[in-house]
Design brief:
Helix content: over 70%
Oligomer: single chain
Distance between the termini: 61 Å
Radius of gyration: 25 Å
Strand content: under 5%
Order of helices and strands: HEEHHHHHHHHHHHHHHH
Largest sheet: 2 strands, antiparallel
Shape: globular
Structural class: mainly alpha
Number of strands: 2
């Protein structure tokens, strides 16, 4: 298609969009003077902007189609080349380690709190990555396990005086039990039906917490949740924040190590097989029911531990903190970063949590930018920012 045809189509699209937005962007009624103001410059701006966006959109689509027709190169991607080089990886890990150690001492407590929130979402994203990225089970009620972990710490501490360190594994265990309870009814479901059931499960948990006031204190929530202690020492607010930062860093490192080993294990390969083809997976002798239940239970475990850390960080929780939008954000970190890719999920979580905080000056346009980025990613890079690369195993014949 030539340049003139592209300009013609983009012009028609711009005229149509100007027509649709005319009442909102051009006409403004002044209720004080009872006059109508005509803002024609807005229409001109919208027309030019949409013409450029439409032309750019068509150009990128054409490039994508041309790229899809070309044969794939055997040359590995940039991130694969970096990860394959052991010296570069060692240097990268050394820099990240030093930066992590000195971060809370270089930046303010506000910045440290933001980073703690981001790392909690990294942990949640990695947990959901087990369910969606590896096992291929679309879970829209993942925030329910997050809530179970948070409320388990709050209630166990309020009624039985349990400390953070005892509540951390208990929150993970209780969330795993709830993951199994969710998994049993949905063993035969997949796709959209599975998503609807898990969505309903998440809303049931939230509504129970909101309406069962005798158990969870209802919408008023639970306050005065203690922060993690260190051998009974009294710490200031800043010291406890720094201490919590190092705790969540340690938990994230443990999560990365555990999930990486799990992915390359027999269970991880069973999840990947289940994601690719359930019928072929079952015909190979893999127990489909147990494999799904393990995915739900292990994914929920990390959400529960993340909930315990979240309750310790905020010192106050209520059902409003665990809405469907939290599940959507966690899901977006997995999809945007790259399903099945640990590095991609970490990048997606940090991007989605840190950028809105640092772009508060553009708070009115944050959701518009967020939606536009997701649309562009799904169209031009559906595999995510850092796509998952499966390991290949080569067997060398022994000629001796």
């Amino acid at each position: 298609m030539n340049f003139a045809d592209e300009c013609k189509k983009s012009s028609l699209a711009a005229i149509w969009f100007m027509f649709l937005t005319f009442p909102l962007m051009v006409i403004r009624v002044n209720t004080v003077t009872k006059t109508i103001e005509w803002r024609w410059w807005n229409m001109l701006f919208i027309g030019v902007a949409f013409f450029i966006l439409s032309f750019l959109w068509r150009y990128l689509l054409r490039k994508k189609e041309q790229g899809g027709k070309k044969e794939k190169s055997d040359k590995p991607a940039l991130f694969q080349r970096i990860f394959a080089d052991k010296k570069r990886m060692a240097a990268l890990w050394a820099v990240l380690g030093i930066a992590t150690l000195i971060f809370p001492h270089l930046f303010s407590m506000y910045q440290t709190n933001i980073m703690i929130s981001a790392l909690i979402y990294v942990m949640l994203g990695l947990g959901l990555n087990i369910v969606i990225g590896l096992a291929g089970l679309l879970d829209l009620g993942y925030v329910a396990f997050f809530a179970v972990g948070a409320y388990s710490y709050a209630l166990l501490n309020a009624h039985y005086g349990l400390s953070f360190w005892l509540a951390l594994p208990l929150g993970g265990i209780l969330s795993a039990i709830f993951g199994i309870l969710l998994g049993y009814p949905v063993l035969r479901l997949r796709g959209d039906y599975l998503a609807i059931v898990t969505l309903g499960f998440g809303e049931i948990i939230r509504l129970v917490l909101e309406n069962w006031s005798e158990f969870s204190n209802g919408p008023a929530g639970i306050a005065n949740i203690p922060k993690p202690g260190f051998f009974g020492l009294d710490m200031s607010l800043q010291a406890s924040t720094v201490y919590l930062f190092y705790i969540i860093v340690g938990l994230v490192i443990f999560t990365i190590f555990f999930i990486n080993r799990l992915e390359n294990s027999r269970i991880g390969r069973a999840w990947i097989a289940l994601k690719d083809d359930e019928i072929a997976c079952q015909s190979m002798g893999i127990d489909k029911a147990k494999t799904k239940l393990r995915a739900f239970a292990l994914g929920a475990t990390w959400a529960g531990m993340g909930g315990v850390v979240f309750a310790a960080k905020t010192t106050f929780i209520n059902p409003a903190s665990f809405t469907i939008w939290e599940s959507v954000i966690i899901l977006c970190t997995v999809v945007l970063g790259g399903m099945g890719s640990i590095t991609g999920v970490i990048s997606g979580a940090l991007l989605l949590i840190l950028l809105p905080e640092y772009l508060r000056a553009f708070s009115e346009f944050r959701m518009i930018c967020f939606g536009a980025v997701l649309v562009l990613m799904m169209v031009f890079k559906p595999g995510g920012m850092i796509e998952n690369v499966r390991k290949t195993y080569k067997f060398k014949a022994n000629h001796n």
